[in-house]
Amino acid sequence: MLPVCAFAKTAIGLWVECQGSENSLGSKSSIDAMLADSRSMGVTDLFIQVHRGNRSWCKSAYSDQSPYNQFLAKEGFDPTAYIIKNAHQSGIKVHLWMNTFRILKNTDAPIIQALGTKILTRDGKKTLILDYPAEDLPDGSYWLDPGDLDVQEYLVKLVQDIMSNYPEADGVHLDFIRYPYRIPFYPGSQWAGGKSFGYGVDSVSRFQAATGLNPFEMELTRDNAQKWDDWKREQVNAFVRKIYAVTVPAKKQLSIAGICWADRAYLSAYQDWRGWLKEGIVDFVATMNYSIDTKFAYYLSREAIVSREKKQVMVGLGAYLLSDDPDSLARQMDDAVNLGTDGIIIFSYDSIKPLNRMKSMIAEKARSYNRQ
User: Fold this and answer.
1) Which domain holds residue 330?
2) Cβ-contact 104, 67 below 8 angstroms
3) CB proximity list for 118: less than 8 A, separation 6 or greater
C-alpha cells in the first residue's frame, strides 16, 4: 500500500536546457535570472544540461566543447562552475545533466570520429541508423548502440572527465539511457519484425559468441527472442553499473531520467529502471511524467513511487504542456506529493521562465511542502 503524505518535506527540481527556447544558459544575465527564479521558487535541485549530442556546455575532453568555448570567449568565465558556486551559496544542489546514447544528427561527433560508424545502432534488418531517412529517425536522432563496449567505455570516460572538472557538483544526471524505439511500440523482438534497434556490430558478435545464436538469422521463437531481449537489456544494466561505480568514489549522486511508462521502458526501450532501483545502482530515478491528463499523471506517479525499493523516485512533470493551465500542474504536483514522492522536477525552466503566474504557483507549493 502506498504511503500517503501530509505534505512532508519534498525536493523541488528544475531541468534547465542548454538549448532551450529562452537560452537560459547562454549568457551571464540569463544564468543570473535562472538562479534568481530558482531561489524565489524554493528550488532545491538544479539539473543543468551540460552535454547534448556529444557537444558540451562545460569543459570536456570527450566531446565537442565549442559551445563552452563560445561562452567562455563571450563572458570570460566557466558557466557550469559559476552555476555550481552561486547555487550552493543559496543551498541549491546542482546535478550535471548529460545525454548519452542519443546524439541528435551530429555525424561530426567526437565519439564517431574516434570510433567509427560501427558504434551506431542498427535495426533487425541490418540497416544502419545513419542510413534512415530523417522522417523515420527515432526521436529525430541518430543513436549510439548501447551494447557496444567501446561506446560504454567512451561514455564512462566522458562522465569521469566532467566530474573531475567539476568536483563541487552534487550529482550526475543521465538521460537517454536506453535503446531507441519506434511507434507503434513493440513489446520485444519477437513481434518487431526486424523493426527494433540494438543490433550493433559489437553487441551482435558478443551475443553470438555467448549463445551460439545469430539474432539476424535465428528463428524468433519465444525462447530465442527472450534471450536476445534479455541480452539487450543487460547491456544497459551493465552500463549503469559502470557509471555508478565511478560516481560512488567521487561522492556524486547518480540519477536517471526514466520513461514514465515503466512497462514500455522495460519491454520496448530495454530500460529497466525499476531493476536499477532494486539493485541499488542509481540513487534516484526521475520519471518523465509529462501529460495534460491529470488522472493519467496520477496513475503514472503512483506506479513509479511504489517502485522505489530502497532508493528514491522523483516525479518529473511537464510544465511545457500546461503553460496556460497552472492549476493542472498544481494538481499533478499535489498528487505526487500526497502519494509520497521524494521530489518533483519541472520540465523545463525555459518553458516557465516567462510565466509569472506559473512561477508563483510553484513557489507557493514549495513553501507548503517544505514548511517546518
Assistant:
1) 11-369
2) no
3) 148, 200, 201, 202
- Residues 313-367 pLDDT 10s: 999 999 999 999 999 999 999 999 999 999 999 999 999 999 999 999 999 999 9
What would the DSSP string read from start to end of 111-138?
HHHHH-GGGB-BBTT--BGGGS-GGGSG
Q: Is residue 6 assigned to a domain? A: no
CA dist list (Å): 51 to 93, 149, 158, 193, 222: 18, 20, 10, 34, 39
pLDDT in tens, 182-206: 888 999 999 999 999 999 999 999 9
Q: Is residue 320 part of a domain?
A: yes
Nine cell digits for residue 230: 534479455
- Give the residue among 3, 12, 2, 1 at the shortest CA–CA distance from 370: 12
- Residue 5 domain-assigned? no
CATH assignment at residue 90: 3.20.20.80
Structurally, how many domains does the chain consist of? 1
